Amino acid sequence: MMQNGKPGKMNLYNNIYKDKKVLITGDTGFKGSWLAKWLLNLGAEVRGYSLRPNTNPSHFDLLKMDYKTIFNNINDLECVLKSLNEYKPDIIFHLAAQPLVRYSYENPIETYKTNVIGTANILDAARINKKVKAIIIVTTDKCYENLEQSEGYRETDRMGGYDPYSSSKGAAELVTSSYRNSFFNLDNYGVDHETLIATARAGNVIGGGDWSLDRLMPDLIRGANNNKKSIVRNPNSTRPWQHVLEPISGYLLLGQRLLEKKKEFASAWNFGPDEKNNLTVNNVLEIAQKQWNLITYEIIENANNPHEANLLSLNINKAKKELGWLPIWTNEEAVAKTILWYKNYYENQVLNTELDLKSYINRIQY
């Protein structure tokens, strides 16, 4: 079905986002640009707060979306607060982050400032502003203390993080929990404050439009486009691969519940694939090559590589049972959709973003 000429089912998310003021931090990034696109299709009034795109090309620039973004650092509390006071958002999706593990080894202080203090700035600005109805803090599956266990991590498991990136996201979760308890306590909701806060944990998100360094998919695509072999490390690592639209659909469903003033949803949530669908890096490489024969790679298992988890998966039973969220595409479909997006972009100069969004929405069952 179409809404206002845009792909989407009628009353998707109970039409909650139509005419709502939505602030997205990190909207110029890979995941943020997909979220902005979907929200615009849902009729939301979108405002961004982000650094300028740091890749060329960038998905944000290619989409040419018609809304305003404040280009500034999330660590500037004064500017963050000014943006909230001027725009008066109903809901904030906080995605602004330093998102790369290997980069965090080279720039740990920047990573902690952006991911921990940046998160605190959003929450503190909301505390001062007092008008924001809902906040979703996006973190990562790597926020958990990774025990290399076969069972998926649950929302109640211990926070941790071996590397600076992962630990910064665990710290962001703790900061959010502290603000929720101290300033946005659920027992006082509707009395002392009107703000509900949730965190969303997802990882190894793939999809068209990501040109970040040191990520498997963008590395493979750069190699294919330049007729070079991509260097692959940790081929036997298992990850909860998922298309970018999967966690975004979860963020939107979670945001709907918070905007409906259902305080029981103001907590932490995992969004990932069914555990039985987890793939190794080797599995992903095989699927990718079937979609685009220009993809070639060389495996280099170097003991000097920075530490990265070998086994990581999420338990998504809470999101399934309580939120009613379900993953739509299998890991194989996610990889195939991703490769075809890039193949169509480089060979035909066409963006599959709208097509992928329409295809995904048509499969949604909630």
Structure description:
The protein is α/β, with parallel strands linked by helices and 366 residues long. It has a single domain (17-303, 311-361), classed as Rossmann fold, CATH 3.40.50.720. The protein contains twelve helices and 15 strands. The protein has helices spanning 30-41, 59-63, 77-87, 101-106, 108-129, 164-182, 216-225, 245-259, 281-291, 317-323, 331-348, 353-361; strands spanning 2-3, 6-7, 21-25, 45-50, 68-71, 91-94, 134-138, 196-201, 205-206, 230-232, 238-239, 242-243, 268-270, 279-280, 297-299. A seven-stranded parallel sheet has the order 5-4-3-6-7-8-13, sandwiched between helices. Strands 1-2 form a two-stranded antiparallel ribbon. Helix 5 (108-129) packs parallel to helix 6 and helix 9 crosses helix 11 (331-348). The protein is globular, with a radius of gyration of 19 Å.
- Residue share in helix: 25-40%
Shape: globular
Q: In CATH, what is the class?
A: Alpha Beta
Beta-strand percentage range: 5-15%
Going across the biggest sheet, name each strand in turn. 5-4-3-6-7-8-13
Let me know the CATH homologous superfamily: NAD(P)-binding Rossmann-like Domain
Distance between the termini: 15 Å
Uncertain regions spanning at least 5 consecutive residues: 1-8
Helix/sheet category: alpha/beta
CATH level-3 fold name: Rossmann fold
